[in-house]
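User: Could you walk me through two proteins back to back? I'd like the raw sequence and the structure tokens for each, with a short line separating them so I can tell where one ends and the next begins.

Assistant: Of course. Protein one, sequence then structure:
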Amino acid sequence: MREKIYDTTAHPAAAPVQRDLLFVASNWTSPSFDIWEEESGDHFYNRLVQRRALIVGSSFASRMGDQQTSKILKTAADALSGTIGSFWDVQRNLIMYENGPVLYNKTSYIDVAVVLGVLHGYAGDGIFGYTDDRVLATAHQIATSFIPVYGVANTTHDSNGAVLGIPVG
């Protein structure tokens, strides 16, 4: 079974895991499309999810007895980790969802893709985790940005008096 899911050398047409992980390790620096498939660029969501894939993949490769691939994946994950902080904009107190020219045509620098990136890409190692002050500041801005736009966002209690959360879309 190992060969059929992992060993690209022995089963190049049928073993996607190793091949796909090595692709991520070799291409994470290239622009990619955002989660909404609208814009090509360097996206926080993609980088964080790629980072998690490389970290988990390195561990998996090691368990498969493939130390060479494990090392390649770990090296790529370390390099990617060194860039992920560039998405933090201290002036805006916000994790930018994208680095590059896409932002120049936007009216807002916020996107729920950042929160989704943390939910899908957090590797459990403290880098952009759920309680990171930068993540919380960004989530707060995303949530409160809807209050002046949609009247329903100002409804704080339901008909039974239970507290309602802020709708986010």
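----
Protein two, same layout:
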Amino acid sequence: MLTWLLRSSNEELLDASLGALANLISNADARWRLLAAGGVQLLGPAMRSDSEQLYKQAGWIVACLAVDPNLAASLVDDGGLSLLVAYASKDNDGYQEEAAWALANLSSSSTHALPMAEAGALQLLLRLTSSCSANVRMQAVWAVANLAVNEEIKELLGELGAVATLLETLARAATTSEEQSLVQTTRAIANLAVISANRHRMLDHPGGLQQLIELAKSELVSVQEAAARAFVNLSYEADVARAIVQADGIPPITTMLQSPKEQVQQEAIWVVVNLSVLPENESVLTTPEVLTPLVALLETADPAVQEQAAWALGNVSSNATSKVAIINLGALGVLRALNEHRSSPDLQAASNKALVSLCQVLTPQSRRVYVGERGSEPRRHGKGKEGRGKSRSPLGESLGPLGEFLVAAP
């Protein structure tokens, strides 16, 4: 009956019908029935109306349909994205928040990424990241971070100026200490930095790299983790890696090596591996401040962290001074034990490379204790340049969608 009334041209009757539906929309069965009855098309005229009383109720109904994971795909197929974009374009923080909340939920599924781009959601969400409302900003950057997981969307966002926009959003969130906005904006930047063009956009932005370095110093573990992933993706390219070192990025990255959270350690050590590929970085990576936590990570319980620590030590031990410094920290015995780690060939390869390099400063008899007669040609790892004989971490993957956005709109 209510869906039939939505066809009415009488504004008062239409208003009453929408009001009733808005009250019922919290019920899952009511949402399903509305969508099955062609509700998206029926809500279109109200959504396009000049009457605020009509479009605010229609917009809320569409947003509620969008956040239902069982109905989201059907809503998109029925053209609901254009209604959400129209609702988010209204000059009202409350409506923008509801629409951004819905778009953030839709963005958690990769299948919605391209339809959202085609509907004009990317430009809109980037604009909303500059909203005066903290809630609107948070939900908009959450959606952008999710969308930036998609390879095609990374490029589109970059071309739309997303890097500069997000850095401006990041600066604002830093001054207001908005933890979730900091995390999600940094996460979006990390996802965009998987492709080279966006890495260089970051490098070219005045103060952009320094902003991330400051974030890496945060006491919030969630912020550290997102910043570390951004540095993994940025440091994969040589000129950006050099810029990180020149901007004094080593100290906060070294601090993250000692984080109590394993994921932060993993990300930080990947950054060190990437930086260690460049021979000119060896001097700044073989100070006690870097080597001490690096050698300590050889004894952590996580084989992935142990492996990366071994690759890094192998990369930065090209000269006798570096080798002796690493040996004096007790690395040889631990590496020898890891070299016997039969369940992880990658860990064996990494520890063997480091051992072969370090043992070059030992006497032949001592060398045999650690590497025997084997291992003169350690297995290569990752995407390091073969000619240089150094290993690089895998390019950091995008931080994937976080699922349903749970901050409900009012």
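Residues 52-66 form the longest helix (15 residues).

Let me know if you want the two compared in more detail.
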